Amino acid sequence: MDFIKPINDVVLYIETNITQEIDYEEIGKLFGRSISETQHVFAFVVGTTIGDYIRKRKLSKAYLDVLSTDEKIIDIAAKYQYDSHSAFSRAFVQHFLVSPMEVRRDKMVLKLYEPFRFNQDNNIYRRQVLDGTVRIVEIPNCKMVMSEPGMFGDGKLEAFDDWFSRFPEPTFPKDFLTYDPKKQGFVWFYIYDEEMNVPDSFKVIDFKGGLYLVSSGIDGEDDIIPKTAMTDFLAQSKELIYDDSRLQLGNVTTPKSAQEILGYSLMDYYMPIKKVNQ
């Protein structure tokens, strides 16, 4: 399936109906998939959920009305489907950090959330994804289900993949893959909850969390771009260092429905870090 046209059709539908109640069933029809699958693909490609995209576009359009017209604020609020002046003002302040009245009074020029425009060249899109961006996340101490150590092809990792793939696809991935030199193999983790039926061949462990640098790459391809980006980030930091007491992790962030469309998957690489002198 070519996902460029469906994404553009959804964006056009939202823009055309920005002052109306957006029909999610219609969005699913335009995309040609269930609304759940559409949500996953849209969030991956656009970088935000459909609901959040609609909210930001409504507020950006409302901002232009506040700035350039004499319409009453309460009428602008109603125009963009807000139930009250106060609800609109709260949402406006949360997004722009100033009130509608301040914008109108001081003629403030603010940064808008522009309509999404998909680049027609998939290769350009891939290069934009692999830009070496580094972010910091924290995984809390938690319980995880752990696979048997193994190598791909020996059946152990495949058994673990088959087990957790039966669960409903989460909004965010819950599985993390690592290579453990002490066990001389890959180990797969999955965030545990008490309702799980865990096979005897897997273990439930206490997972030591902490801070991680994270950067993205294409799964199955060279990881030099994300790992170089994280190494360079640490080299320039005066407050953070590599934490060799924990293992590096990886997880695939692209939903399966989007993998089929794109022909590749994004892998997030996690490098454990800690504060200097910690």
UniProtKB/TrEMBL annotation:
Secretion signal span: none
Keyword Transcription: yes
Gene Ontology MF annotations: DNA-binding transcription factor activity; sequence-specific DNA binding
Keyword set includes Acetylation: no
Keywords: DNA-binding, Transcription, Transcription regulation
Ranges where the HTH araC/xylS-type domain occurs: 8-106
Stated name of the protein: HTH araC/xylS-type domain-containing protein
Record organism: Alteracholeplasma palmae (strain ATCC 49389 / J233) (Acholeplasma palmae)
